[in-house]
């Protein structure tokens, strides 16, 4: 029932002169997203979303840098495929954007809280032995600092 109310409201809003341009842009971006899902490699397409399209410049948002790097390799062919589908895309920009839903905990992928790692007794003994054998150096200072932090917690 709520969906009907929202759809009615959006349908009425779509008809107002102030919002026609916005809804037209939104419809174009939605259609381009569908085309992108068809023309992009499937393993990359599921991790990307279109961020915006203005004056021939298309922005594609990815979840992480590795996906962005692979997507950048396919940009020339994506550009040609968009043009073949009738879109006047002249440039594609790839942006890495954090997954907002995962950060807020509303996504199926849960973000684990940060927890402190503990070094076991055998590891502590080994690090103590290493620290005593090392000559004065930045490595010795780092190992001693690690040992102090582990003893405090």
Tell me roughly what share of residues is in helical segments.
55-70%
Give the class-level CATH name of the largest domain.
Alpha Beta
Strand order of the largest sheet: 1-2-3
Q: State the oligomer.
A: single chain
Looking at the structure, the CATH topology of the largest domain is GMP Synthetase, Chain A, domain 3
What form results from the Cα inertia axes?
elongated
Distance between the termini: 54 Å
- Secondary-structure element sequence? HHHEEHHEHHH
The main β sheet shows up as:
3 strands, mixed
**Class based on secondary structure composition and strand pairing:** alpha+beta
Strand content: 5-15%
Name given to the CATH homologous superfamily of the largest domain: DnaA, N-terminal domain
User: What is the total domain count?
Assistant: 2
Mean pLDDT: 84
